[in-house]
Amino acid sequence: MKVFITKQIPEVGVQRMEAAGHEVVVYDGEQPLSQEALIETCQRFDALVSAGFNKIDRHFLNACKHLKVVSLFSVGYDSVDLNAATQLKIPVGNTPHVLSKATADIAFLLMLNVSRKAFFNYKKILDGKWKGFEPVADLGQELYGKTLGVFGLGDIGFEMAKKCRAAFDMDIIYHNRKPNARAEAQLGARYVSFDALLAQSDVLSVHANFSDQTKGIFDKAAFAKMKPSSIFINTARGGMHDEADLKDALDAGTIWGAGLDVTNPEPMDKENPLMLMPNVCVLPHIGSATKEAREGMAMMAADNVIAALKGDRLPTIVNADIYL
Ligand code: DGY
Prior knowledge:
Blueprint (H helix, E strand, L loop, with lengths): L1 E4 L5 H9 L3 E4 L8 H8 L4 E4 L7 H6 L5 E4 L9 H6 L4 E2 L6 H16 L2 H9 L20 E5 L3 H14 L2 E5 L5 H7 L2 E2 L2 H7 L2 E4 L13 H5 L6 E4 L8 H10 L4 E4 L19 E3 L8 H20 L14
This protein binds (2R)-2,3-dihydroxypropanoic acid (DGY).
């Protein structure tokens, strides 16, 4: 059968699908395909691997009802209208777990960078502004024994909490849809309300799914409840924080710093004022960008396609309701 991939993915994934007897076509155009072009292209294919956050909404799914699977090259599935996919009985697969450690590494890296203003100080050298040792200039803050608040303690949040506990003996609090027994048993994590998470966290790290419930949840009112010394980290989705409110909170000293691997929109404009702030580090959505994680994702995305094209259940399915 025929599989279309919207962007180049690690070759191991393509080879796996070819070894299973499928014809694989990888889009290699400079510009991302428009939705209409993707719909038209998909008419000639049985399966889609979506590797670039294409909008898989009701319009797309209605026009591509024939697809035997939409296999996402991501753990996040906010690009898909799951209700529509489920109604149309199109299975949607994702790539959990394999990227959790890599993504948590980036959350940890951002936390440490912000706490020591590392990117800002690096830029100072580039700008010729390093004049020598300055006893009181650009002081950071230490993280030992502080409180990490995790918003959305799933696999990635767990890895972040584990690192923070091991490296800095941080206390872990979290807010989730449901309690995480493993984190409570292994890391002594404590479940708290959203307001308590805001009020008690020294570092607040966002790892939740992006949904109507979490869209814009970190806004002016939320930042106002945080400590003036706190650091906000988002490696999940840029749509969960309101960027203007975040900038205001940083300018006003309502919070102390921010580290972002995700922005809204992406890519972020290079003139964005956040890029010049001493207490902010921004990265271009590289959470899962390691060879190991991306190859793991490619294999999982391929396994989802292979299973679907055999008529089997996807190994990692997002809308398992289709099998009810
Ligand atoms: C995901 O998998 O959802 C990430 O954001 C892409 O690395």
